[in-house]
Amino acid sequence: MDVLCEIQRIYNSFSDKEKSIADYILQHGDMLKNINITELAKNTGTSGATITRFSKKIGCENFVDMKMKLSSNKVETDIPNEDGIFSYVYQYYNEVIEKTKYLIDKESIFKIVNKIKNAKTIYIYGVGSSGLTGTEMMQRLLRMGFNVHCISDSHMMIINSSIVSEDDLVIGISISGETEEVIQALRISKDNNATVASITSFENSTITKYSDIKFTVYNAKFIDKNRFINSQFSTMYLLDLISMVLLKDSRLSNNMQITINAIINS
């Protein structure tokens, strides 16, 4: 059992005090091995009893067990030289993949593949870096022959979601699960009976309330929030999985090859 994955998975079910503990672990997890339960309680404004309950809530026997499991899952973040940088980035991406693999439901991948194949039109909503990931998803699906659009402008999301139908598939991407523009667009899409899928890092975030198919990917900030490395990598890993399952269909694979040849010969 991966402690950080479990903390992320049920984060929105924590009380305010429990979230203080979770946030401390996120920000100072590497320091936890050197403090006792009394010090952690002081640092988080909680109590020993609250920390014990938190530990059990995430599947640990007690505080000491939580410390041991966190230590065993922690990626080394020291970067002493250039060789260390290469090693660190490799470890970082490897951990993101492993933890996302832990969180992703395989059956949901097959469900969304089926919905993609049968949708009249596919709309992808996302802003900022999630919008860029949405654009990548759109380009892949376009090359397989699907009628797909990525929308990252908040006003266009509202306009578009108001005219979707039960024949359409809407995919919302929000790592936080709380991007207001995406939430509103998914709510309207759901009211119009479109099939709605969401990609987020938090299992019970607002975006999931309007979703028929839900994907939880690992939040890279739980590994190292102090350095900037692709925050969308876990979503791209999910996109690769969906793409590979789609390409098992010979018709879609043939369409992809046609577009590749068209680009090469242009």
Automatic annotation (TrEMBL):
<dbReference type="InterPro" id="IPR035472">
    <property type="entry name" value="RpiR-like_SIS"/>
</dbReference>
<dbReference type="GO" id="GO:0097367">
    <property type="term" value="F:carbohydrate derivative binding"/>
</dbReference>
<dbReference type="InterPro" id="IPR046348">
    <property type="entry name" value="SIS_dom_sf"/>
</dbReference>
<keyword id="KW-0804">Transcription</keyword>
<dbReference type="Pfam" id="PF01418">
    <property type="entry name" value="HTH_6"/>
</dbReference>
<dbReference type="InterPro" id="IPR000281">
    <property type="entry name" value="HTH_RpiR"/>
</dbReference>
<protein>
    <submittedName>
        <fullName>DNA-binding transcriptional regulator, MurR/RpiR family, contains HTH and SIS domains</fullName>
    </submittedName>
</protein>
<dbReference type="InterPro" id="IPR001347">
    <property type="entry name" value="SIS_dom"/>
</dbReference>
<dbReference type="InterPro" id="IPR009057">
    <property type="entry name" value="Homeodomain-like_sf"/>
</dbReference>
<feature type="domain" description="SIS">
    <location>
        <begin position="112"/>
        <end position="249"/>
    </location>
</feature>
<feature type="domain" description="HTH rpiR-type">
    <location>
        <begin position="1"/>
        <end position="77"/>
    </location>
</feature>
<dbReference type="Pfam" id="PF01380">
    <property type="entry name" value="SIS"/>
</dbReference>
<keyword id="KW-0805">Transcription regulation</keyword>
<dbReference type="InterPro" id="IPR047640">
    <property type="entry name" value="RpiR-like"/>
</dbReference>
<dbReference type="GO" id="GO:1901135">
    <property type="term" value="P:carbohydrate derivative metabolic process"/>
</dbReference>
<dbReference type="GO" id="GO:0003677">
    <property type="term" value="F:DNA binding"/>
</dbReference>
<keyword id="KW-0238">DNA-binding</keyword>
<dbReference type="InterPro" id="IPR036388">
    <property type="entry name" value="WH-like_DNA-bd_sf"/>
</dbReference>
<dbReference type="GO" id="GO:0003700">
    <property type="term" value="F:DNA-binding transcription factor activity"/>
</dbReference>
